Amino acid sequence: MGSTDGFQYRALYPYRKEREEDIDLLPGDILVVSKGALQALGFKDGDEQTPNQIGWILGVNERTKQKGDFPGTYVEYVGPVKISVPSHRPRVQRPLPATPGAGGCRLQEALEQGSPLPDLQEQFSPPEIAPPLLVKLVETIEKKGLDSEMLYRTSGSELRQALRTDWTLGDLEPFDVHSLGEALRGYLQDLPSPVVPVSVHGDILRILQEIPQPENCRKQLLLALESPAVPLQNTLTLQFLLRHLGKVSQQAESNSLHPRALGEIFGPLLLRLPGASPELSPDFSVLFLEILLQTKELEPEQLPPALPPKPPKPKPSAASLANGNSVPLQDAEWYWGDISREEVNEKLRDTPDGTFLVRDASSKIQGEYTLTLRKGGNNKLIKIFHREGKYGFSEPLTFGSVVELITHYRHESLAQYNAKLDTRLLYPISKYQQDQVVKEDSVEAVGEQLKVYHQQYQDKSWEYDLLYEEYTRTSQELQMKRTAIEAFNETIKIFEEQCQTQEKCSKEYIERFRREGNEKEVQRILMNSEKLKSRITEIHDSKMKLEQDLKKQASENREIDKRMNSLKPDLMQLRKLRDQYLVWLTQKGARQKKINEWLGIKNETEDQYSMMDDEEELPHHEERTWYVGKINRLQAEEMLCGKRDGTFLIRESSQKGCYACSVVVDGDTKHCVIYKTATGYGFAEPYNLYASLKDLVLHYKHTSLVQHNDSLNVTLAHPVLSQPPAR
Q: For residues 315 and 506, what is the distance between their CA atoms, to the nearest angstrom?
């Protein structure tokens, strides 16, 4: 077979073949493709340099010698090469695959059995950007805030103790940011191998010693960490952590976690020194991380490869779709035109997965749009590209309009485009309904609808509470069973040692008693030995049964956790609806007594609100009785020390543009942020609607803060500087 022109490609991601004609890929594999094979598919000179636009490519894997098809989105172009002509065959059009998460099964199996954490290579595979456990911890920490002075500086939390024997992470919301921070450090500490392998320590040391300029040193360190000696999963994990720690250091004014402090905390966890080394001082790992974090802006997050969608199905009739392809974009309910990212975030707040809208791209380029999709409790921004009258999320662009594109993905999963987005476009945020959340036109009708939503919310809450109680109970039982298994192991060890000791000693006694003709003592010794062995067997059997029960219960516990998570979007949506109706009624002047009736709350015989005949006598109308200006948390706590529950003050917050409310609850001072937004003041959406701080204080004189925080079951009853009523 003669040689001909061809091209080389390098695999970036692993791929396991799904059909007989496919070939397997591992990162770093070299693929060889003949020029003739590409021409047979209709591609021109130059197209070979953009394999992601080709689709499926016929070639040979140099490592395995397999010949077959591989996805062009999983490789990069290397260059031309002379090769033997491979045969090609006609193929039908075929969608590209979602990248498999090869490490998930192995990790899940290890966690079910309570085993130590596996290596990073077994925890995830690209296009995932980091281990799922680590991503979940970091996302929850960032959600709860990075401004705490004790972040990453505490130890001894219950969460960390629990994770020493069980790395299956359930609901992390109940834990504070300090416990989560300790759990993250524990995760890095429990990894069998460090994130930065020992094989590159020499290169890192040389760079730190020879390159004094921080920015040049940082660039060389990053190059060294991308060498073939560092597994791809380790590189991705380090990049993910650097982005997170960069965000933490940006809050250094509040948390005092400058790059040096973060280096001291995380450096030894990421780059572990192998025993005593004359060349490597303990400061080596600290300096390494400090330099990596000394950059003025965070690097953009690496995104997984974009995969072309399946060919669009035949268009359904307009009558069968809420948004038929014949609908102009301007008339589509989910198209919001030129609105800001902040407005989009506000509209998608607390919505379930699958909620979406489309807006004009911030680039302002004609024909480019942005789809914002709710997934995993976060907003995912997806660019809609446009060229030569065609639209799509990635090459090749195959849809005739934005409406056609959105309609397609309302019926097909976006996993066709990105394996991480395994959802359809389910719930459009309609621009036609946003201003009419409360559709009823009378106070009585709104009250009756509030009653319906409140009952639905209570039913869902009751279901969630039952699941939470069951989850807590089974979690405690799982921990007890794990402790019991450890005790079984120790007991078996003791019995086996005792059995060995008895066997050694009994041989001598048996021989002696047999010489003496004392068969009775011989039988007694043999009987004791059998009893001991039988007891060991019983303990082994009990341990095995307990391990089987543990595995089954762990599986049931995970199912409960899934059901709890599936209820959360419904709960948030119902609570949001209920609260919007409450706000509407309050603004319309509905009395609290009537609202309580709709909510099913019994009014006391002497209603505290009806007793207040002259509302103007409230000290709350005087701002000087509760507004204390610019003081810090400690000063606020000193002012409120020893005061009765409900005593409060309002002060300027350390968070720019916000205020803080400090209030006494159960004898302790609690603090919460008051946001100032375009719609008004408030503790959270949809409550940011009070025209002034005074209006907010007067409202929460009668309304408990418990609706914002379960630990704040209190009203703003007593301004800190008001005079107590005369007796």
A: 86
The helix/strand/coil state of 76 is strand
CA distances 170 to 166, 687, 709, Å, are 10, 30, 21
Q: Where are the alpha helices (DSSP H) in 379-442?
A: 402-409
Counting residues of the chain whose pLDDT is more than 90, the rounded percentage is 9
Q: What tens digit of pLDDT does each residue of 127-136 get?
A: 577 888 888 8
- Listed in order, strand segments (DSSP E) in 529-586 are none
Q: Decide: pTM greater than 0.90.
A: no
DSSP 298-312: PPPPPPPPP-PPPPP
Secondary structure (DSSP) of 637-680: HHHHTTPPTTEEEEEE-SSTT-EEEEEEETTEEEEEEEEEETTE
Widest Cα–Cα separation across the chain: 109
188 compared with 689, residue with greater pLDDT: 188
Which pair of tokens denotes residue 238? 């380090």
Q: Which residues contact 209 (CB under 8 A, 6 or more apart)?
A: none
Rounded CA separation 32/156 (Å): 55
- H helix intervals, 145-213: 158-163, 177-190, 201-210
Are 312 and 408 in contact by the 8 Å Cβ rule? The answer is yes
CA 171 to chain centre: 11
The residue behind tokens 């035109």 is: 337
Residue 502 is encoded by which pair of tokens? 């008895």
pLDDT at 686: 61
**Residue 506 CB contacts under 8 Å (≥ 6 apart), including other chains:** 525, 526, 529
Q: List, in order, residues 6 or more apart from 615 with CB less than 8 Å away.
A: none
